[in-house]
Structures are given as C-alpha cells and as structure tokens.
Amino acid sequence: MAKLKLDLHDIFNKGGKIENELKRIIDEAVKKRIKLVEIIPGKGSGALMKKVKRFLDQKHIRALYHRIEVDVKNHGRVFVHFRF
Q1: Which of 1, 56, 71, 75 is most buried by a 10 A CB count?
Q2: Does an H or E element contain 53, and which?
Q3: What predicted TM-score, i.e. pTM, was given to this entire model?
C-alpha cells in the first residue's frame, strides 16, 4: 500500500510553512488517491501535535479523510486514513 510521509521536525518553528505543508500533503493524497498519510510532528511539548490536530479538525479538511489515528507505540506520529 502506498503512503505519503511528512516529517515536521525541520519546520517546527515556521507556523505558516507548517500549514502549507499539511495542506500540500493532504491535497497530494486526495489527488493521487493515496490511502494513508503519515505525519510526524514529534513528541516534544505537544504544541506541534496540537497544531496538526487543529488543522486536521477543520471542517473542509475533515471532509477529505476517513479517520485519524495517533500511533499507540509512538505518540509523536499521526496517521491520516483515506477511503477511496
């Protein structure tokens, strides 16, 4: 199964760039009909994870995917599942 991966470690302190990259990866998954996107905000203080979850919870973004799942073995990783 194909998946896309976005590691946010390099841009953790660039707010606008984070949202642009999140939008880009979601749009790419929809366009290419990829069923799984892995987003890695990292563990840290949890602020970046909250930002990712807020982004994914926007009504127009939430309509694009089926469900999200935080990795139980590594809580610094989020999986976004799509149903095509």
Answers
A1: 56
A2: helix 47-56
A3: 0.90
Cα 52–chain centre separation = 6
Average pLDDT value over all residues in the chain: 92
78-81 vs 67-70, strand pairing mode? antiparallel
Our measurement of the distance from residue 32's CA atom to the centroid of its chain's CA atoms, rounded to an integer in Å, reads 16
Please report, for the chain, the start and end positions of each structural domain, with discontinuous segments joined by +: 3-81
Is the CATH number 3.30.1370.110 carried by domain 3-81? yes
Specify the DSSP class assigned to residue 64: T
User: Which residue, among 45, 54, 37, has the nearest Cα to 2 in the 3D structure?
Assistant: 37
- Mean pLDDT for 48-63 is 95
Cα(26)–Cα(65) distance, integer angstroms: 9
Cβ(42)–Cβ(3) under 8 Å?
A: no
